Amino acid sequence: MIRDEAALWLHRWREVLAAGGAVLFGLWVASKGGFLLMPAGLAIAAVAAGLTLQAFRRMRFAQATAAPGIVEVDEAQIAYLSAEGGGFVSLSDLMEIRLLALRGRRFWRLRQADGQALLIPVDAAGADQLFDAFTVLPGMDSAALVAAVEGNGASRASLPALDGISHIVWQRPGKGIATRQP
Question: Is residue 78 located within the same domain as residue 129?
Answer without folding.
Answer: yes
